[in-house]
Structure formats: C-alpha cells, structure tokens
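ASSEMBLY PREDICTION REQUEST
Request ID: AP-0331
Submitted by: J.K., bench scientist
Number of chains: three
Total residues: 891
Priority: normal
Notes: Please return the full assembly, not individual chains.
Input sequences:
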Amino acid sequence: MDHAETAVMQAPSRREIGAGVYSEKLGMWVFLGSEVLFFTVLIGSYIILRFGSPESFADPGKILNIPVTAVNTFLLICSSMTMVKAFACVQDGNQKGLKLFLVATVLIGATFVSVQVFEYLQLAHEGFLPSGYVDGSHFAELAAAGDLPAKVNIYGSTFFTMTGFHGFHVTMGVVCMVYVTIKAFQGKYTATDHRGVEVIGLYWHFVDLVWILLFTIVYLM
Amino acid sequence: MAGDKHPNYFMIFVGLAVLTGIELFIAGFSWSKTLIIVTLLALAIWKAIMVALYFMHLRYEGNRLRIFVLAPLPLTVIIVIAVLTEYVW
Amino acid sequence: MATSAPPMDVAHAGSPEHDLSFIRKYIFSTDHKIIGIQFLLLSLMGLFMGGLMAMMIRWQLGFPEGLMPLGNLLPETMVSGGVLLPEFYNSLVTMHGTFMVFFAIMPLLVGVFGNYLIPLKIGAPDMAFPRLNMWSYWIAFIGMGIMLAGFFVEGGHSAAGWTQYAPLSSNPEFTGVVTGQQLWLLSIAILGLSSILGATNYITTVVNLRAPGMTWFRLPLSVWSLFITAILVLLAIPILSGAAIMLLFDQTIGTSFFDASNGGQPILWQHLFWYFGHPEVYILILPAMGMVSDVIANGSRKPVFGYHSMIYAIISIAFLGWIVWGHHMFQSGMNPTLGMTFMISTMFIAVPSAIKVFNWMGTMWRGNLTFHVPMLNAVAFVAMFVIGGLSGVFMASTPVDIYIHDTYFIVAHIHYVLFGGSLFALFAAITFWYPKMFGRMMNEFWGRVHFALTFVFYNMTFWPMHNLGLGGHMRRIYDPSQYEFLQPLAGTNRFISISAFMLMTVQMIFALNFVISWFKGKKAPNNPWDDNGLEWTVSSPPPHGNFAETPTVYRGAYEFSSPLVEEDFLPQDRKLEGDGG
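STATUS: Completed
Returned structure:
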C-alpha cells in the first residue's frame, strides 16, 4: 500500500479507531445497508407471490424481452468496470483516465436507463402493464388463446415495481455521477483525496449488484 | 485500498460477462425447474460476490467493515423464508 | 504513510466564518444542536396534535350522547350537529396512532436526543455529515406538511388504522378515503427517507467521531441506545417504505400486491408491516431506556449497576426484535407453526428487558437518592414499563392472545409502554437536558406538580383499559353500546375519558413551564446536575463547534461517588494523577 493518501482518507487518527475507514465511505456502506432491506421487500415479495401463485407468472421470455435485457446487463456490468477503472486511475494520479472512465460510466449508465424505458414502452405497447394485461392487446389475445397465463396482475405488479425502483436508483446514480464527473473536470479529485469518486463508485457497484440478482431472478427464472 | 497492485478489473469484467453468458445458456436447458433455479441463483450470487469483493474492494478492507456489510443479510433471508412457510402448512 | 495530519473535524467555536445570517444560523442550520431543537418544536407540536385527537376519541367513547364541545369549529364532514361522525372517528384513531408514533415519539427520541446528545456526549464538534443532517430535518418537515394536508382533502384522512391493513387500506371502497390515504403513504415514504439519512449520520458519527479515550465501553448508555436504535431505524424503516410504496401502487396504478382477487396476498402486508413494526417499537423504547439509565445514575449518585450487561441487553433486544413480529399476527390466519415459533421468541425477549429493570433497581439500591424532577420521571418510567412489559407476557402467549387480541387490553399495553414508558422517559430527558439546550432551568416546583398529577391521571386513564379489554371491549370501535355485553362497560369508558381530559389539561403545566422557562427560567450553569458526561463540561448552551479543544476521555460516564475524588461525581474528561493519555 504505497499511495500517498492523507489522514483524511485513512481511519481518523486523532480519534478512537472506528471501522477503520473514513466517514464518507462508512456512511455510504451504512446507507447501502438500508437499500439492501428496501430491495429485500420488493424482490422478496416477488419471490413470495410467485411461489404462491405460479400460474400468474409467465415463463421466461414469453412476455419479457431477454435478448435486449441481456445486452443491457452486459452494459451495466461494463459500466461498473469503467467506474472502478476511474477510481483506480485517480488513485494512480491519472487525471485523464479518471475523466475518460467517468464519462464512459455516465454514458453507459444513461444508455441502460434508456434501454429500460424503451423496454417498458414496448411492453406497454404489447399490452403488459403493472395492472396486468391491457384489454384487446397482443398479449391479451395470446392469453385468451392459452399461450400465456390467464391473469398476470401480480406479475405486472412485481415486475414493474422491482425494475422500476432499480431503474430509479440507476437514474439517481447517473445524476450523482454527472456531478462527480463535473467536479473531476474541475480538477477537484487528487491522488491524495478522491473520496467522492470512491463513494459514488460504491453506490454504482451496488446498483449493478442488485441488477445482477434481479436479472437472474426476474428474467431467467 | 488497492495499491499499485490493482486487481485486473478488465478480467473481472470478462469473468462476469462469461458467467452471464453461462446463465443465459442454462436458462434454455430442459432441466427440472428446481435445478435450473438453484444453478442460476448460485451463478448470480457468485457474480454478486465478485462485484462486492473486487469492484467494491471488500477483499482489501478490514474485518470490521465486512461485518457491517454482512450484518443486514440474515434479515433478508428471514422474512422471505418466514412468509414462504405460509404456503407450506 | 501520513500520520497526524489535521483532522477533518476541527472545532471552530467562535471563528469568523461563522458570522452567518439569521436564516443560516437558525433556520437552515447545519448545527446538530439547532437541528435537535427544531425537531423538538416539530415533535412537541405532533405530540399536542396527537393528544387533541385522543381527546376527541375519548369524548366519543365516554359521552356518545353528548354534543361535542367546540364541535362546531370542525367541518360538517367531521362533526355534524355536535355528533362526531363514524368516518371521522376512524380517521381519528388512525391519525392519533400515526402522529404519536411518527411525529411525536420517534422524532422526540431519535430526532431530538439523537441529534442533540450524540456529538456532545462523544466529544465531537458535530455530526459526521452536518449538511445531510439539515436535509434530514427539512425532509421530515415536508413529510409532516403532507400528513397534515390529508385532513383537508375531500374524503378526509386515512381511516385504516395506523397499521393500514390491506384490503381496508388498499381498496378505497371500504373506507371511502382516496386522496387522504395516498397522502398518508406519501408522507410516510418521505419521512422514511429523513429517518434513513439520519440513521446513516448517527451510526457514522458514533463509530468514527468519538474523542480520544472514548472507547466503546466508556460510552454513556444514552449514546449506546441511540446507536443501536439508529441501526434498527436504518434496517427497519426501508421495509415500511417498500411496503408503503407497494400499497400506494395498489391504489394508484392498479397493481395487485395485496388484492386477493387478482392473485395478491393481504397477509403479505401484515408480514411486511410487522417486520418493520416490531423493530419500530424497540426504536420507540430503547433511547428512552438509555436516557433513563443516565438520569437514574445521576439521581442515585451511583454508577449504573451492570453497565456491561445493560449494553448486551440493548443489543439482545435489538437482535431478538427481528424475529418476533408474528406475535402481532396470531389471529391473522397465518401458518400456526409460525405462530408457535413467534410465541417462543417473544417470551425470550422479556429476559433482556428484565435484566435492565433489575439493573436500574440495582443502581438505585443504597444510592444517595436525589429525587429531582428528571429522577421522578425516570423512576416512574421503570415502574410503568414493568407493568407494560408484564401485560406483554400475556399477549405473547398465543392461546391467551386469542381472547385479548384487538381489545383494549392491547391498547392498555401500548400506552403503558409508550406513555408510561417512552413519554415519562421523555419528560425526564427534556427536563434533564433543557438547561443544556436553552441555558435555563425549568421550574422545579411546577415540574413536580406536573409529574405528580400526570402520574395519577395517567394511571387512572390507562389502567382500567386492561379491564375493558378482558371484558371484550374491542379496539377502534365507534359505538360500543351497540353490543349488549359492552353496555355495562360504559361507566368505565366515561371514567377513562374524564381522567384523560384531566391528563391532557395537566400537560399544559409542562407546556407553560417549557415556554416560560425559556425566557424567565433561572440561568443554568454548565453542570447543574453534577453529571459526568462531556456535554456538561461546556457552557449551557454550548458554542457552535461544542468543544474549544477536543476532549480526552479517561473513564466511563458513571463515576459517581468515586473514592478517587472529594466530589460525588467525576467527569469523563478530568485527568487525575495516574491517568494515562
């Protein structure tokens, strides 16, 4: 460990040693703890409702678009990599790399959200909403023909709520990421103090982590 | 904090992409539902752990922080399992 | 690696950059002390409103035939021709609970005392994230505004009980309330954000900002309890937020989470709500217990008996609190096997609470007892909490609960732990720390009068509710006289109502004492109670930045009657010969 990081980024030295990490980082990890519980409610409810009424849920790929979402998943994981590369660059004193990778993360993150919005619009168009099928829609016809479950109200409810709130968190992340990127271009992050980069990075990786689980549970099972 | 010896983030990304690919592949198999679910879940958890350990640097942090991080997880399991038993008399 | 660079958190008492405008100093302040007082004003208002609602409920139950005094001040949709309408009654019971839990007790314990005490008692200049702290307050303020708005919309406020069980809460047909219900849910979600941000702040502050020498096992119990409570808030409130959002969606965008006719599960709401709800009730009592420990040690001039076991008890209560939620659902139709496991875990949780009660008694035993006003209230807390806890044991037993669930026996329990418990602890805490907050002492004579009258009228109000409940009187009922078997209980209801009116009236003494002392109270010295905590080493009120120099701590917080010194107290930061650095 031979980075010249000041005491600011180490555990507070004049005070009692706490978690051994600086406050902003500890604060973000603590906050992420609350987010774990929030997503537990949404994803847990999905698991419970699905277990209880499997006939109200469609098989993978029947309603949801797996190929598009799979690409989106790769994109989000990629943005997680660009994020951590940005962090590694600022640690190494590579300001150019920091800016480059932050911009990449913003762009890929924004793309992810756009693709998700597009996915929602597609689903609505085909007749799948939080309240279930839309009367007279393509999906409703398939259901009438027996190719899809008769009623998918709780499928719609859980799908849109889980992915919607995840998308909301990604959007908030992109907004914060833009702020951090602007500050990076202003030269506010150095090799000795880059707390903002690490902290937004943690949030971003968390959002990616949740998606990794969501994608598997919701789209592939 | 990772020193000059950063892990190879690109390779981690490749690993995650490969695992995702494997998941997509398995999702199409005609195994029993239970087997598919268990396998996919295991792969997803593996990916999540890799993101946590390498991208979020937990591999290089002290135990105290790791305990903070792990602490909420049992609560996740408890509520889901408890309510699932409603369906299993 | 770098060693002692200047710490990020520099005390800046009286420095020039802090000639802030009035607005930045007192309205949009980042100073934890100001924010604590802002929460105090907000929550005392919430307490008052909750109390007013209780008065209306008691009017209906005690004097159902009478015309409600001042009823003509309320709109026709609430009180018509002097008669409180049933729909409004349902809103009242809902909003009384809502206000008392979310806008009174929680902000008082966590928002006020968490904010005010933590930095001072650990030797820090402020919270870890002062600006986030300011946001926490203003977000809570907005949440309260939205909640208040619900009274003014068409259809009135939410009427599904503070517990909001689906489908009563999810289907507007059943209560007739649409907008009010949505505002309730929105308000709670926003308030939740405030709480989560606050909890993040408190946890980080206690972990990272303790002064040198303030090790974990030298922390006062008030800080320990607030720290553990913050962890509970962090993990439990998001559950409520998630569930509230699901409920809001059921009402607005047509989801079916709790709609059985479309594959949803009404009982899922109960599981989610109580998974939050049970840790919530420990959030409502643990800080009270912590502060009572501080006051009782002070009033006994003795260290807290079993300090370490007190901490382990707090931690156990917090742990066990996660696995007992089903005891609120014994009659819900849930899996009976679950019912059995919850009965066992609930019985267990009485143990750490009992340990604490014995330790408080042990602290007082052979102490040099000084019954100042905080001490009176703190001792009352212990006694009333025991009663509330004992009634809890009855409810924990599933077969007994079959009979008493949703009766006034439960209401008695709730109010013994929340009023007899938390509120008496708050009277103790407010009186104890008022001098530090406002630089003035509250009037001691009126404090004693308030205590004595409150104690009497409180027991007269809530004890008979045990009898009502055992007699079969159900909760939230508008007109008990419609049931023949409840008609003999009308006299008890009237007695309770009259006692409640007296109880509320007596609170005016506290309110007047609070307000008048602010302007006319005796000026308070730094340490009016001869206490050991770090907050008593600085002026009353403390300067911005708290400590001119970061204190160094040499001992725990309860060294009363120490043989090492002549005085009967020994502050944490006082260096004696032989003390290490």
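REVIEWER COMMENTS: The beta strands of chain C are 79-80, 83-84.
SIGN-OFF: pending second reviewer
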